Amino acid sequence: MEPVQPADRVPADRTAGASTPPEGRPAADPGATPPDGQPPVAAADPAGGQPAPAAGGTADTGSAAGGTADPAPAAGGTADTDPDVPPATSAAAAREAARTADGRSPKDMAISLLVLLVPIALLLGFYRVFLGGDEPTTVDPAPVVTQARAANVFPVSEPVDLGSGWRTVSARYQPVDGGATLRLGYLSPDGRGVQLVQSSVDPEKLLPAELTREGQPQGTTQLGGRSWQRYTARSNEQALVLLEPNRTVIVVGAAREQELRELAGALR
């Protein structure tokens, strides 16, 4: 039979885990109430001897094993340039940045353009040199002249024995209000355009339409035994006009006056 224990004695199993304070220090009372305005005393951590955080407190964010975590870079910040990167690497990065979205460099694009242009230049040269690409298209005025003569609205003339440098580039016969008009287009030996107009339309309507209202007579000249009137016409153009009872003949263009006279004198 065990002896009777005093009433205020703490059982041995409750005091077994209590830590013994160092010499010269009073033992901490885990149940003691701190003075007003002071935080509660943290109980010792049995595992590591570190005090547990107080209720509502914030735990430290240090790294494990006593290390300290490096601060993360701020959002949107830029990384520092590494001074150890060699210039060759920077040049390669610049060339890579110069590449287009489809992965081709400006040099590749220039080569592709040359590959396309060279065949075009060769075809253009062949067209001009061997096919006469710069030569104007000529026409045969004979069918149109025959049509005008068959209509028998006015006497029809055409040039005879013109020089080889003259080329016929257009021919048209058209009935119009008040008569009909035959229009033949030529290129002079100098490559200037000249029109031969023969019409039964009233000269008072025909001349302003062909020579503009600013066209004015500048005197007469004799060609092939007939009296022609010299007229001003559109800008840098001049004209020779032959007035007859049934028709009006106009030779007008940007050619030299001598060429106009040659064409007008060849009419038969």
UniProtKB/TrEMBL annotation:
Q: Keywords of this protein's UniProt record, alphabetized? A: Membrane, Transmembrane, Transmembrane helix
Segments for region (Disordered): 1-104
Q: Is-annotated flag, keyword Membrane?
A: yes
Residues crossing the lipid bilayer are: 109-130
Superkingdom per UniProt: Bacteria
Residue ranges under compositional bias (Low complexity)? Answer: 39-80
What is the protein named?
DUF4245 family protein
Species for this entry: Micromonospora echinofusca
Q: What is the lineage of its organism?
A: Bacteria, Bacillati, Actinomycetota, Actinomycetes, Micromonosporales
